[in-house]
User: Fold these one by one.
Assistant:
Number 1:
Amino acid sequence: MYFRFLTALILREALFIKKNKDRWLKDEAAPPVSPDEMASAFTQTVDDLAYAKTFYAHSKTTNYLNKLAARMYLNIYRNRKEESSRLKTFWKYELPLTIQKHHRTLLFSFVLFTVFFLLGFFVSRQDVEVARNFFGDSYVNQTIENIEKGNPFGIYEGGNPLLSWLGIMINNIKVAFIFFVSGIFCGIPTMYKLAETGAMVGIFDQLFASHGYGIQFWLVVFVHGMLEITAIIVSGMAGFVLGKSFLFPGTKKRIEAFREGAKDGVKIMIGIVPVFVIAAFFEGLITRLYNDASWLTSFITAASTVFVIWYFIIYPIQLHKKNTAKALLTRQTL
């Protein structure tokens, strides 16, 4: 009789674990960050702990749930105590993991931009009028005049630095949000705008390369261009995430998938706003120093490149692998 009771208890515990294990692992590997989700997850975990203590007081499951509930409580207490930690969590964990989740979409956005960059470069190489059609005669004539004077990038030296910074920043952020919001139309306008931007950069590059300043273009323009172009590509990704979530909901209801895609897209857009701010600062105040402080502009270009590769590619992958390994270890323990 006791043996039957013990067997039934073990089977009940196994079913209890099977029913809730995925949720526990998810809460441990990727804890909720919004207050409502965090409170809901904590309440569910406490209920599970109470159930486990009632029927399996000395089991590993009870011990695990006790530790999980304690960790979640500390997270809630810490979030209430320090609102600044929310920003740290966003930049250190939430945004990189969201980017990693959509790395394939980011790759698509990058490839699309690069393909049209190359098309713009080589087409304008065959037809010099392409640059004038894109930028207008005034801009092209002024650039050529600067090249003939021996100051090819003099276009960046004009205007008030502070006003240039603010103007560029506002314009770029506005354009980026258009990229994102356009994704709601199945991503087609986003695709067009990203392709157009890639072609424009390629044509701009060829304008200098045709006069023997191809290498200088990368060293000077990418003082701000590395961050600016990266943010544009990422904003294109956010638009594609929005469009893809509606077109391809998978096993979820379309409205749920769209809501999740919109949430991820908004996170990404919030995340790249500071990138636009810094890029505009570099363009308005630093790029113009390429003649007087070339060591500084070269350092900023190199540092920006390292940051982009690390934060948008390497770090999200490392963070995802770390969380996956941690979840796998926990699963084996259970």
Note: The CA atoms of residues 93 and 319 lie 8 Å apart.
Number 2:
Amino acid sequence: MPPHAPLLFVNARLVDPASGVETRGGLLVLDGRIADLGPALIAQAAPQGARIVDCAGDVLAPGLVDMQAFVGEPGAEHRETIATATAAAAAGGVTTIVAAPGTSPPVDDPAVVDFVLRRARDTGRVRVLPLAALTKGREGREISEFGLLREAGAIAFCDGKRSLRNAQTMRRALTYARDFDALVIHFPEDRDLVGEGVMNEGELAMRLGLAGVPREAEAIIVDRDLRLVQLTGARYHASIVANGLSLAALEEAKARGLSVTCGTTINHLTLNENDIGDYRTFLKLRPPLRHEDERRLLVEAVANGLIDVIVSDHDPQDVEMKRMPFAEAEAGAVGLETMLAAGLRLVHSGDVPLPTLLRAMSTRPAEILRLEQGRLAKGAPADLIRFDPDEPFVVDPAELHSRCKNTPFDTARLQGRVKSTFVAGQSVFERRSD
């Protein structure tokens, strides 16, 4: 098929999370963009030379936009590469990855931004947008050169999972970002209060003999940051919130009209502290998995829109860093390939409607990052996924495309498989029939 040949999807369940509208029909792609869609589009109406994809009733939706994923390059290719990360993303329906800045060297120089973009162009299957470090060296002291980094192609500014301890530094960063109309993404964690904690503080941690992390370690930083946002007028996104204390503060800040948004991870929405079981290190995460009551609050916040974004928090770790006692193992889990399927648990349970789930995984992150993606509309980029939300499967880590296999859903029974993924109308993944 020629690179820009017309592409017509027919017999599809069209789900547009931007409008919340679901219809049956077709969708036409011309020159990498959506040219038309609706019930009138059938195979007989295909333009000459078009490729026709019969979706057979499957969902056709915008590709997912993952606002937090570690892609490995530069410096951590033993954990992941842009080639393997984007292969995993395509298989999971993620068409845009926002790449974390915690590489070696960190993304605090325009040359590193350029490197990531060039590697993504040469070896990636999906779009890769680099985050630049909020502070030089991600050390929390000196603010990065926002102007030069934005000019090089950085989409936003974040120190990864390093929270800024110093309130004055955070105020300066927010003020600087406001002057550039840049987005600050911050991981809220009081590292001093976390201390040696490795899981949720509570009865289970005591029974397992593990040091706990109180909810306040997150909430204190959220409270501080929101006050600084009110002081500076900057755009702010809390990358991961995982408890009701943070949600209450964010709800109040939004009610006051502050330019704040927040995200949570698919792990915190679908798992809780009990899943750690007998010290399963693939379930060691930052922030830690919380109590079931907290998980329910997070799910409710996604359903009502208080939580804007769901991320994979894709953080590959090699076997040596996970095959250790729980307290000593590295935190993190892979998630690009299972984010959608795990999220569909919330749909099947009746807790979150499908358009709402997809809105948090595509439309809202695109809006926050000011991207064109995340909607089924004429003129929008044809970044699309076709999936059967009901197809069951068992997660086999050996079949995952990521270089590391540390999935918290090892052997889990999930429903919902991506059948094909398209970026700008070009196929980047096709699932082979079993």
Note: The longest helix spans residues 216-232.
